[in-house]
Amino acid sequence: MSMEKRENYNYFLSIPTRWIDNDLYQHVNNVHFYAFFDTVIGHYLTQVGQMDYQNDSIVAFAIENMCQYKRPLRFPDIIEAGLRITKIGNTSVRYEIGLFTEGFEEPAALGYFVHVFVDRNNENKSAPIPAKIRSALEQIYQINS
Amino acid sequence: MSMEKRENYNYFLSIPTRWIDNDLYQHVNNVHFYAFFDTVIGHYLTQVGQMDYQNDSIVAFAIENMCQYKRPLRFPDIIEAGLRITKIGNTSVRYEIGLFTEGFEEPAALGYFVHVFVDRNNENKSAPIPAKIRSALEQIYQINS
Amino acid sequence: MSMEKRENYNYFLSIPTRWIDNDLYQHVNNVHFYAFFDTVIGHYLTQVGQMDYQNDSIVAFAIENMCQYKRPLRFPDIIEAGLRITKIGNTSVRYEIGLFTEGFEEPAALGYFVHVFVDRNNENKSAPIPAKIRSALEQIYQINS
Amino acid sequence: MSMEKRENYNYFLSIPTRWIDNDLYQHVNNVHFYAFFDTVIGHYLTQVGQMDYQNDSIVAFAIENMCQYKRPLRFPDIIEAGLRITKIGNTSVRYEIGLFTEGFEEPAALGYFVHVFVDRNNENKSAPIPAKIRSALEQIYQINS
């Protein structure tokens, strides 16, 4: 995942940092990077994929994620979170995320996130990705990445 | 603090909600409202008041804050955080904050926040508000509120 | 709310601080104090009051809270969160919280929190406090405080 | 990292969940698992390794971490966070973490975390692990894991 640039991602969300994101070393704490991942993915699923987290029976649970930290962030940096999808299975999806900030070509952080879709009305057992969401995921799928 | 409108505030910051802000009742948890307060204030102090939280000797510590919750927020709501100042003392300042969202005239939440300025190089004892910050605070001070 | 001591509270929960609680000034950020309030209250409601946040129709929403910061906390401090109740209405309750740490008689912070009970199956309209919860609340009610 | 048990870890810290950890699906959100990792590691570094995050020139920054989610957690679960070390370099260290809860032999989550040590007084350039910390790290190093 080296030499990543903005053009390698298909969907972007602007995420301003918050005062509380800064930790005792005056950088955004590593934990919050996962909140950024979670937010760009949740934004895509709800705004493009029309997932309704209040009413849909089938929703997505995290099963694995990872982050590499390349460059510190600091309040009040504004993050441009880039998203792409590199694997779409029957019940799961793998996203890759790059976090960029203005003035830098290289990302501040890179990571991936794997969701499994589950049916809340069937004991959270895994379930096929709903058609409306699958269609959205396919829009930012990158076969060769 | 009733019937507050956007026009009662002098400085605004857009704060998008994050996926993680939603709690088990699928609303933004009360705790995060204080992160919104903290963020609009920190933004004002650093961007207008030129407070440098890394290097300045004199910084601001919270001594009291309060929030009234009027209407639930939910990811992906975008908050318009309004700020005004209603008291500027020698070493302390009182901010009032209104959190608005698009399409609603009345705020989702109202609160206040009191900072005391302290000198990190003098055992965190209270210290006069630095001139550059006082000047910024006076810009959004409302004598009659 | 001055000169508060542990003996003024009826229920205690131990809440260890986390690394991430520390903010850029290397103290626990003010926002997290509300997470401590929320946790001791939620613990009391679910463990003593048998509130089931997954299945109960009637649950509690925050309508107002406040905190006064007396003394900084720092990871890895362990907080002893004290709870009492000073008002029980038909649909609402007022809690008061003191946050203590070992070796100090005086609290690090004091605050209050007001819950309104709402019916999730009736558009979140306010609803009488369920009997099982009312009974628990009465156990730590202090008429004269 | 399959079939992990408590006995595979050398140091444990009890981390109670908080009300706010629960997300809109009423499970502890994935992001907070990294706060648990960060906390058990920070506890070890400061309490066993005597790292002083306020005054030491050399401190540790996250460069990579990962988590696999095996079983949901829920407030008020109490986490037993297990820690071991599988690589100690000149300037970096790799930790592995297992998060357990009472009544379950298998972990709720597994992950790793890589720290690089940096010198705050030398532009945050990487620096050899201080002797007091190296000595602590070696106590829970597992050569064959």
Describe the structure.
4 copies of one chain form a homotetramer. Chain A has 2 helices and 6 strands. By secondary structure, chain A is of the alpha+beta class. The longest helix of chain A is centred in the first third of the chain and has 19 residues, at 30-48. Chains in contact: A-B, A-C, A-D, B-C, B-D, C-D. The interface between A and D is medium-sized, with 24 and 24 residues.
**Number of helical stretches of at least 4 residues of chain A:** 2
- How much of the sequence lies in strands of chain A comes to 35-45%
| CATH fold title of chain A | Thiol Ester Dehydrase, Chain A
CATH class of chain A: Alpha Beta
Count of the separate structural domains of chain A: 1
Largest sheet of chain A: 6 strands, antiparallel
User: Strand-and-helix sequence of chain A, N→C?
Assistant: EHEEEEEH
Short description:
By secondary structure, chain A is of the alpha+beta class. In chain A, 19% of the residues lie in helices and 36% in strands.
Topology record:
The structure is a homotetramer of 145-residue chains.
Chain A lengths: L10 E6 L13 H19 L9 E12 L8 E11 L3 E10 L7 E11 L5 E2 L4 H9 L6
Q: Top keywords for this entry?
A:
homotetramer; 145 residues; alpha+beta; Thiol Ester Dehydrase, Chain A; six-stranded antiparallel beta sheet; 2 helices; 19% helix; 36% strand; globular
